[in-house]
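[Automated response] Your request has been received and processed.

Submitted sequence:
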Amino acid sequence: MRNGGDLVVETLTALGVSHVFGIPGQNALGLFDAIRRSDLRFISSRVENNSAFGADGYSRVTGEVGVLFLSTGPGALTALGALQEAYATGVPVLVIASQVPRSGMGLRRGMLHQLDDQKASAVNVTKSAATVRQAAEIPSLIADAYALALSAPAGPTWVEIPQDVLLEPVSVPPVPSLPVDIVRRAPRPELVEAATALLNSAARPVILAGGGIRRSAGGPAALVALAERLGAPVVSTVGGKGAFPFDHPLSAASWIEDRYTTELLEDADVLLAVGTAMGEVTSNYFTFAPRGRLIHIDAEARVLEANHPALAIHADAAQAMSALTHQVHARDDRAGVTQAADLRKAVEDRLAAQDVATELTLMADLRAAVPSSAHTFWDMTIAGYWAWSVWDPQDGGFHSAQGAGGLGFAFPAALAAAIATGERTFAVSGDGGAMYSIAELATARQHDANVTWLIVDDGGYGILREYMTAEFGTATATELARPDFAALATSFGIPAHPATVENIGDVVAATLATDGPAVVVLPAVLQMFAPTHLTKD
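Generated structure:
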């Protein structure tokens, strides 16, 4: 006889879900037994936080909702750090968490995994949180959460279901299909007119392209059309990488941590910021101070004018940019192209005057080794910070954990994307961040995933070492004991390849031409570039 778990699986199937991530747990056994009787593909990780990163990575690559099954209490709580990244970055993830039986909810009965209020723990990292009380509620609550996860601004949603509801027989008819209403907010006409007037009067318009453009259906194409009509240079944020081609004459790339880029944004008499909060990293650590008028477009109302006064347009990025393209005057001057080229040259000259040849060569060699269409995933590590600025996504996707800034994102996200799509992915971690994800070597081997994992081993938390040394003259608690990563990977049956800064490109390229998982270990102490001119006392 069908039970609540079957009803969950039927609902997900009706919504078009094909993959589910997670780890089995006592209160969630009804979910997992139901998956056995379905066509859904379940991908199990070794740590719940990595399951959540996996659902996140899957969603970023496929554009679909990443579905995550969590068990009650410790399992659910362990996933919250990764859900913060999905929430901050706007990635649609649907969490279905188990609960203790209804007879224990809200009480202190000493049930295993029991929390006073599990749903309250999810509130800070999800768009919504609901609890099923009767099996008949399952299809509607899951469908609503699924639609909300996709609706702009996208993000994680949470539905929890008690153990007894999952196991009890149900008389609810099978779920053949479930229409969902996904909200795409259109811009208000009077705001489009006001923005058009500002842009038509601008002498030096600049566009700041955020991650909201990538997440908006048709966003990148709408951005190119608007930039070309305005003749405006385009600066990409970290999350916005890939929304505007770096080889376009109007691209000012994404050197957002260099003051030359900050000054370009500040000098714009009209700055059009789309799909970005202009937060800490994008604003070059809150040093950005616009001198002109700011037009701010975002589907998340709370980011509008959060950091700077603006003409705020609460709307889907693609719809707002398309509306502006139809109304602004076309420009045929080359000023924007010149601005973009001058900025790139100024940054190159600044870098040439610094002792960062090793880092520039490393990034160039990696870019040459990785296929142009590959999805790349970057942890919070010095190589990842370099990639924020220098990496050209080309035809692939650039994925980073800069939204919340937690460690351990790259490998489980790349792993899930590789398993789900069959395409080879590339992940980069430091040795500190790698230890957050090291258990997933077992998952990579179990699923024979086509993923290459580069671990840059500098003996500790490298970026924190650099920050602390610069601020205090010495670093504390940054040096780490760690395993022999190559030997550890080999113990999982995964080919491991030691590399040097001289041969890293060839080593990585060779792994990308193979099947199955591979680990590359690069012992190297990297340093960040200086964002301004270096001066001597």
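Summary generated for your ticket: The two ends are 79 Å apart (CA to CA). The first helix runs from residue 4 to 14.
If you did not submit this request, please reply to this message.
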